[in-house]
């Protein structure tokens, strides 16, 4: 029977999915518990407590696990021996880092986190999977990774592709797929920019033979928008003659697993770090990034530039994290 880990989640899907991916990569089953600081003040206090080696769950509302240990606080780093079913506690994101460390000490097990826990004492985590774009300081317990973790496997992509084929039958022509995200604090996404990008893609893959002839059909072009895509951008997408088109505002079906599996070339807007990570990890497509990022040396730009230098963007090289996961299993004694 597989060993089991306890995942603490802040309720954010992007964080929770990375913790699930970590658990699966470790070969472990998992239980999931949502946890939040009582207030912003209590979160700020956690940084101070951690600096002094105080690890307490009193900064959080009460929560249940199946076999909690009786103690609620430790002030040293020696694990306590308790009777429970978990071999490690995992968490992703700043809302879980301190809780994962505190609960791991309470249960007497190792603690593994995803993303770089800046502001906390790094050395007192047992294992940190840190994205390279966070520029983590070298340490024996820190494992740099080039992408976000993706909670998917071969069965997930097979099921997604089968579902896609019930809606659309691809031809034998190579497919170019486009995944459109939305603006955030480090990116923009305007109708004019989207029109320019799509005009360039269509002129590349469906160029007209002459002004009197329809575009050639050497490629299929597919597209999906997302819940973050602005309505005016969706309107631009809708105006182009795609072979397959999914507008999220009209249909919440997810064609991305099929895009990843079937496309020969994948375009992804640059702020969609999760989708870029998925595209660079699975399938065989060449991944290209549509640069909608704002100027400046922010983490989104570092993320894309690092992947380009590694040949994962503007190339067909795929990320292999098997060595990193093997190291994580050693650090967590799994």
Topology:
Blueprint: E1 4-9, H1 13-25, E2 29-34, H2 40-51, E3 55-56, E4 73-74, E5 86-92, H3 97-107, E6 110-114, E7 127-131, E8 142-145, H4 154-167, E9 175-179, H5 191-205, E10 220-224, H6 231-238, E11 244-246, H7 256-262, E12 265-269, H8 273-281, E13 286-290, H9 299-309, H10 322-332
Parallel strand pairs: 1-2, 1-5, 5-6, 6-7, 7-8, 9-10, 9-12, 10-11, 12-13
Antiparallel strand pairs: 3-4
Any guess at the CATH architecture of the largest domain?
A: 3-Layer(aba) Sandwich
Order of helices and strands: EHEHEEEHEEEHEHEHEHEHEHH
Ranges with pLDDT <50 over ≥5 residues? 67-83
Number of strands: 13
The helicity comes to: 25-40%
Q: How would you portray this structure in words?
A:
The protein is an alpha/beta fold and 334 residues long. The protein has two domains: 155 residues, Rossmann fold; 156 residues, Rossmann fold. Helices cover 33% and strands 18% of the residues. The protein contains ten helices and 13 strands. The strands form three sheets. It has a six-stranded parallel sheet with strand order 2-1-5-6-7-8. Strands 11-10-9-12-13 form a five-stranded parallel sheet, sandwiched between helices. The two termini are 13 Å apart. 39% of the residues are buried.
